[in-house]
């Protein structure tokens, strides 16, 4: 008796169906990447026009609230959106679905207008894992260029203050990322102080009930005035940092130990700062160690440790009377370890000096 088996035919049909399914997955993934490119363009415009500045600390914080992204992922979206503004080839490749968002995210960590054409070839020819490895190697080689860029940013810092024809004072400036972050946090703290004062006046019926509430720009101007008055009253003594208005830097442990190692070193809103800058800031900053697994999931958040206490800061000012750098002579100084704290982390005590 002969029995016909349809097994071979079914297997062939299954293979054809799987090929079709795979093609559909790839096509839809390309559409998703193209949609992501459009979203990044919108994010870049939204941030440039300060659409997030309605009570949120950054564009990433707004994205986390409005879109439901994890804050770290939101910071990455903002960083990539900014980078693609100067990288038209990579932006176009993402918009056409030629490169995945994962590849573009990695490439934007090292790409410049001069190198993006070469990196575009890398992205087209390699897998996402290959691209990540090449980017890590590229970043290690490119530390010299990063230091040069940091020096250029430092050299380009400026603040212009001048009077307009009607007597109003116009302020225009350009600050380094870490300095700008401190400035924006200070403005936020000053705005909060003025808001609490206004609430107290309203409760005591001292405020004008007809007056319109000030706009955000007016609040910023009032906050800047309060900062100037406070600085003069406090004789430019920074004191202890406010817990709520601290500047946060996310830096990998490897980068903190050695700036030449690959890894992230970014402010909370995603702006990149050099590893050397993170090491300098770590000399007088609270440190929180966060451990992640291989997939990037958070496993443990350690307790806050070491910062220069107010008592030690006062002792430094009493002993040094200002900056100890030869020939400086500035009365105002910050506490820093004589050697980077990150290089002395296993010692029980750290030599500290003012500079």
Characterization of this structure:
By secondary structure, this protein is mostly helical. The chain has three domains: 9-141, no CATH class; 158-225, no CATH class; 249-354, no CATH class. 52% of the residues lie in helices and 9% in strands. It has 13 helices and eight strands. The chain has helices at residues 7-48, 59-67, 71-84, 88-95, 101-107, 116-125, 128-141, 143-155, 177-203, 216-233, 253-257, 275-281, 310-320, and strands spanning 158-163, 169-174, 249-251, 265-267, 290-292, 298-301, 335-337, 352-354. The strands form four sheets. The chain has a two-stranded antiparallel ribbon. It has a two-stranded antiparallel sheet with strand order 3-4. The chain has a two-stranded antiparallel ribbon with strand order 5-6. Strand 1 (158-163) and strand 2 (169-174) form a beta hairpin. Helix 1 (7-48) packs across helix 3, helix 2 (59-67) crosses helix 3 (71-84) and helix 9 crosses helix 10 (216-233). The chain is globular. The chain starts with 6 loop residues before the first helix and ends with a strand.
